[in-house]
């Protein structure tokens, strides 16, 4: 209950502070490429329930919905990026609409990143390790320890560590380290 109240408080504060940045990002995406500025990605939430998560669109219309690490193996991801896509991904501005998912209760500020609906390997490993019992987050322990650069088993191990050690103190630590990593652009591929 305390975590949910903190999520709502931090999200409302974040929306107020970030509203100019959200507006500018919306306009950059809308004016730089055809299609909507937002897209709704089908993600796996708590107890493996599907939900729709909004993001600013960084990829062109028609890009396959696959995980970044898989796209890096199949094709040049830069070919799919919109003119501002690389910038908004490297600065994590594409993630700002997820504040809506936190307010709605589908996500938390801190938790394991929500898997795409088709990431069967990640979903299966998280279920085996009871990570699926957690509400997904905008940021998490795995994100500050490697993000997309770490293999799925290692990511799940980090998610399981968070499950076993979750606390408000750890959440604050993750939030602060996330801010530092975003500002330094650490572990961001595209």
Automatic annotation (TrEMBL):
Among the GO molecular function terms of this UniProt record, one is: transferase activity
Domain of life according to the entry? Bacteria
Q: Where are the transmembrane segments?
A: 6-29
Q: Which residues form the signal peptide?
A: none
Could you list this entry's UniProt keywords, alphabetically sorted.
Answer: Membrane, Transferase, Transmembrane, Transmembrane helix
The residues forming a coiled coil are none
Q: Which family does it belong to?
A: Belongs to the bacterial sugar transferase family.
The protein, known as: Sugar transferase
Species annotation: Methylophilus luteus
